[in-house]
Amino acid sequence: MPPAVLDALRTTFGFPAFRGVQADVVARVLAGERTLAVMPTGAGKSLTYQLPSVMLDGTCLVVSPLIALMHDQLRAAEAVGIRAATLTSADDNRDETIARFRAGALDLLYVAPERASSEGFRNLLGQAPLSLFAIDEAHCVSEWGHDFRPDYRLLRPLLDRFPDVPRLALTATADAHTRADILEQLGIPHDGMIVAGFDRPNIRYHIAPRASTTQQIADVVADNPGAGIVYVQSRAGTERLAESLQKTGRPVRAYHAGLDPAIRRANQAAFVASEDMVMCATVAFGMGIDKPDVRFVAHAGLPKSIEGYYQETGRAGRDGDPAVAHLFWGADDFAKARQRIGEVEPARQLGERVRLNALGALVETAGCRRAILLRHFGENPADQCGNCDNCLNPPAATDATQVARKFLSA
Ligand code: ADP
Ligand code: MG
Fold this sequence. Notes:
The protein has helices spanning 3-13, 22-30, 45-55, 67-79, 94-102, 119-125, 155-161, 176-186, 213-223, 235-245, 261-273, 306-313, 331-343, 346-364, 369-376, 389-392, 399-409; strands spanning 35-38, 59-63, 84-87, 108-111, 130-135, 167-171, 193-195, 203-209, 228-231, 252-255, 278-281, 296-299, 323-329. With 410 residues, it is of the alpha/beta class.
């Protein structure tokens, strides 16, 4: 790595060194090579485009699926002195942003994918030099992925209009099929993929059938004095659970997209500042939240996919200290999921079924949970991790699997 790059890492970002594959990704980007970086949540994907954006001439265009996420990123970039702006329907300073872009006064410009289809925007991009296209949450481009956004399909023509501008796609959540799809959809060569290790050895996984969810969650809360997140499937469910957890004596809040934005912000800020708060939330909570000392994550029902489970549990223990992830599931979760799959477009049903079965394998296994997770992400883990419920307490080999299999095949 050239000294100038390490210099920028230290002076601009204040980090002493790259983490994991960051250095490889940055080196490829600076060399102008098209790249897909598959790195777990919290691994530091943003740096891999932010650092090149301050080193290269021109503006780095960042495509990101959520306006809230963009605004978080914007604040973080501005805090370290990067010249950045967002261009979204929620911004009222669009003229100013456009003028800054034209004047070459932006290192980073965050846009929503639907911009890509507008002729005006394409013309605008031709009016100042571009350093890089960074496509965040790139799994959104894949119909096979768990979070398909049709707007991401509009990006390819835009990228192809600037064939010499390097492309960096970023994702945390891609199984092998989705990864191949991202490469294909975004025109990145197969040898342009860099995959980081997915293991989070400090997270202990526990998965159990549901009995009384409220009691089970209250027990998790009692056993874990640090801050934690409980994922609940419905908005109303988050508020009900928060209410009933009041009796644990811990500070408890709820978070879901239906809450007044001011309340949502206040609850999030309170959680980030707290050492012992329990946040009862839908999956709307967590993206873009930087709290290293979350000590537990509990799922009060089946997550949407293994990717979702990995991402949500991955919010625990980012500081590297021990953390625990609990999941409580029931037969009715699988029944509901199957019903939901029956209602999606036929073209997507196969992928959805494969994903549900992968979740089934995770919850039903009598073997190592971590091994199943890591194999899902294309790794080759040891058979036993020594830090999940099944490794710590091997179950009597028969019953649980048969029960679960019955749910899955019904
Ligand atoms: P991701 O997008 O992969 O989930 P982020 O880009 O949001 O992760 O980064 C997660 C956290 O890691 C941020 O707080 C960021 O400042 C920090 N971080 C990134 N790179 C480094 C590094 N090289 N050294 C120390 N901390 C880092
Ligand atoms: Mg990110």
